[in-house]
Amino acid sequence: MTYTQYVSRSKKKTIKIVPICFVENIITQMDRFNLNSQLEHLQSKYVGTGHADTNKFEWMVNQHRDSYASYIGHHALISYFSVAQNESIARVKFEFVEKMLQPCGMPVPRDE
Amino acid sequence: MFLYNLTLQPPTSINVAVVGHFSGTKQQEIVVSRVTRLELLKADPNSGKLQTLLTHDVFGIIRSLTPFRLTGGSKDYIIVGSDSGRVVILEYNPIKNKFDKIHQETFGKSGCRRIVPGQYLAVDPKGRSVMIGAIEKQKLVYILNRDSAANLTISSPLEAHKSHTLVHHCIGLDVGYENPVFACLEVDYSEADLDPTGEAFNNTEKMLTYYELDLGLNHVVRKWSDPVDARANMLFAVPGGNDGPSGVLACSENFITYKHQRVPELRVPIPRRRNPLEDPSRGLIIVAGVMHKMKGVFFFLLQSEEGDIYKITLDYEDDKVNAIKIKYFDTVPIAASLCILRAGFLFVASEFGNHRLYSFTSLGDDNDEPEWSSADFMDPDHPVSVYFTPRELQNLERADELESLNPLIDAKILNLTDDDTPQLYALCGRGAGSTFRILRHGLEISEMAVSELPGNPNAVWTTKLMADDEYDAYIIVSFMNATLVLSIGETVEEVTDTGFLATTPTLDVHQLGDDALLQIYPQGIRHIRADRRVNEWKTPGNRAIVKAATNKRQVVIALTGGELVYFELDNQGQLNEYQDRKEMSANVTCLSVGEVPEERQRSRFLAVGCDDNAVRILSLDPDNTLEVLSTQGLSAPPQSLSIIEMMDIETDASHGTLYLNIGLQNGVLLRTVLDNITGALTDTRQRFLGARPVKLFRVTIQGQPAVLALSSRPWLSYTFQSRLHLTPLSYDMLEYGSNFTSPQVPEGIVAISANTLRIFAVEKLGTVFNQAVIQLKYTPRHFILHPPSRNFVVIETEHNTYSPLEKKKVLEAKQKMGIQFDQNLLDLPSETFGLPKAEAGKWASCIRVINPFIGETTSLIELEENEAAFSIATVNFHNQNNESFLVIGTAKDANLAPRTCSVGYLHVYQFVDDGKSLKLVHKTQCDDVPLALLGFQGRLLAGVGKALRIYDLGKRKLLRKCETKAIPNCIVNLHTQGNRIIICDMQESVHYASYRQHDNRIIIFADDTTPRWITSTVMVDYDTLAGGDKFGNFFIDRLPAETSEEVDEDPTGNKIMYEKGYLMGAPHKVSHITHYHAGDIITSIHRTTLVAGGREILVYTGIMGDIGVFVPFVTREDIDFFQTLEMHMRNEAPPLAGRDHLQYRSFYSPVKAVVDGDLCEQYNLLPLEKKKFIAEELDRTTAEIQKKIEDMRVMAAF
To answer: Per the database record, which ranges form the RSE1/DDB1/CPSF1 C-terminal domain (chain B) (predicted)?
Structure first.
């Protein structure tokens, strides 16, 4: 179903008859172009936005970096870690940022 | 179920503290962030005491704070970096005593995210711009300026982003008036992410990067980037411009390096503690520090992670630095922030434990402490370690301490002392600074003197001689048939020549007019003039005075039969009787006149309480003297009255609200607003104080009027931060009280209790709990009560630490190797200096029996061989005549991540010696860490890793009877009722199980649909569980009633056994009743009552030291009311740090069925027009809303 169809259906619940083949062609091309550029924009703006070729490793690395950043930001959570490890809060924070560099070990080679 | 959340004690931890001139005066203040609250503290330069001026809940997480002052300004603003995705600039308004939000600029999503700025804040020392940074990539620079009306302006943000870059620290460089420069400690991970060989990772460098804000071109450029030590973690700006050479100190593991553009770097090692147990391979980092500038010189105080402070000075000429020098200064608790105040104080905001204020006794310039200079350590190929000898404080002196419960690890609410309210027993602190604390609701008092009297007195007063005397001269004590006058001087002695009649009991004493004294006794009034002339007024006939009320110009007495006689002082100092007397319809039980307002002749109102259960307000105006203005009916005869003006209006410091306090004979205190024009009584609040009639006395607290209310326990009604507080005093029952001021006790209270006279002072106003502290050795984990002996058993476990035996072994080995060491270094008090760190995987642990009432450890068992205790329970084994045994779960060679151990043990101990000590019965091996233990039907239920087992007590071992392994990760919490067992998993929320006795099986029949990282839970009823998770959420889950019945009524048990799982879990699911982001990790939660006769509520404690409650609503109307009020509050008073309140309370999942009472209570802080607006929307009056909010708190908690 094309975008216009979807919109018209959701708005009016009746399907307007439009020359589908003609519209579809244009829209899909525009969509593809738009989608790609939008995705690229998102990927550059929001770190960690995935793409079709994201592998498990990259996804994991991203998760870990997000998690560490969240631990550092929440004081209660970093205190919790600090008490468990018996290290100072500053030390735990430091080690977390250090770990963000490579949280899941060496990157796996991409299979082309 | 619908709940109302209230904070009883806000978080006590501090994550950032900054100092500045926030009120714009010469005096410096400290602004601290208590994570979810912003607090303004003042250090009194004379007494060295810290005083809280203001606290404000911001409903968000404050991550960074910085003071900031525009060039040429005299007032500091506060910039707040939080989880709101906004930068907020606040100004402290000293007149209204509140923080005003000046600017709020949105730049990103809310939440503590990786690329949303808020974690770091750096400000240009000249106050021209601020950089706000995220952990990764994003950095925004705002230019700050002032407009023509001298208002602060903020520009749109300039981006200094660099993708694939992690930021360790960020500061504003001091460059004088050149373009502002910010220095960041950065790591670029883009190459390391792509190289599978790991070579790029190894070659990754940490860079010190300067970002320059070009004020002319209005953009930010990367000016300079240079590699630094790969383990650098912190930067400090060196003064620049006219004050110094500029540049940064980059602190890294073991080294401090001076770096600046175009100059060679200089580095000096961080001296290490001389300690035979020290591990030389372990790096030492700087965790906090402060730079202080004074008259052309500057120095740094940097603190290491051991708590040692070093003083760092720079040896420089013009812009060239020759050397940096470091020397040991003193050791204080490890700080989150250090602040130096110009008045000569060092404020240490401890990361854990009490915060402290120290005063400087010297700057450590002229002691014989060795100093190391970078000139001696220039060869980078030969890293050397230098050592110093730690010692007691030499340059600092402790001035004050702020109590902090942080981290609060476990707590129990019990009433072991049979008080009116239960006590809170809490495990706090980390490492050697750990404590066991007993918290009682009430104000702490300091007792100055207790002296015995020759009989049981019934009243006490103090009086000055002249109206403008600073201190009291006499204490007058009235007995059944005599009066004793004591003079206050160096000592308190009896005097006889005062003019007071000693052979009669006294009803009232007051200082009258300028220089006269007044004694009222049953047969008359004595007016003692300054020249010792005495005017007497005798009662007519044989009638006696029953009650009297006085102030410095007016006297009212009630004669038997209910006749009132009124006297007023004229300008000649003569006491004149008003021509008419007033006959009351009933016997007078109490009287009160207010204080004479300033620049007035008289107080306009007289309150008369009669035994017909009514209080009447009579006018004392010359126009309508003794006319009844208003009447209030009561539920019981009044015992005592007090008209008092309380300073509880924020907007106007000179005028307060006039209140009539009524103490009833049934122990209830009523507080009614007395209209100061018409004398009408409105807005009555009531509170039950205790089982005895309430007696009221006017006292002064911090220069402001307050009421001492005495029932079965003493209470104090006072104003603090423009808010009325009614708090019990943690003290004995008192009979009578009065104000007391003397040179030694500037503000105290004198009171009588049985046959003693007590003088005490009230301290730490505004605190909810007072604490008794028992010192512990290692981080406490859990504790239980042994009910017969009322002793507590605490398990303490410390990672990374030598146990005593291990310590001995290491020392012996060193001695064998011929290494000499100083025994004094080992004997340093560990509470201050901490325990020496061993390598990871080493554990020290002990089991301690404490008698909480005498604060004594009656027994202490150290666990050896790297065993660590993690769980504790008392179990009454059915095969041992239900004798109570103590079971402790331990693990040997435990590893934190991944969670493993070589072997786990279950120790069984017997209580011996009346529960004072423990005897080991036997140890049972198990294969994983036992984290949860529970007594279950005369047996032991143990969660060992992911296995749930039932054990019976055998002769030489515990005997495994039953097991289930259907729990996904690890059991952390267990509850039971009947045959039902609720199992809490470390990650996967709750599981409901049923124990089938006939075939001895545990079958899990229901679980949760949401994963939760559970910390603590409580079974609210048979089907319901309340708890908290590691992200600070609070939740209640309930098993649907039909499922519950179905499971229990299944006679064969086959149905639930063979039921199909649903959604990859148990066949049934629990339903979510409530969800709420509490803002702190809930470490313990209890179902209990806090006030006598109050409702059952949920009380929780959080790791940051906060204590709060969830009160269930009773009626639908209340829910509607508070929900609407909450909605209006969200609109009218958006949180200070810019976080959206609804979003904050729905941090991880949407808030459900909980109203935030803390937000509702902020209604009292709103300006009048907003209050009125909301009141109109709710169809009520402002007073009604305020009353409802207050009732909600006092009915359930305090």
So the answer is: 844-1163
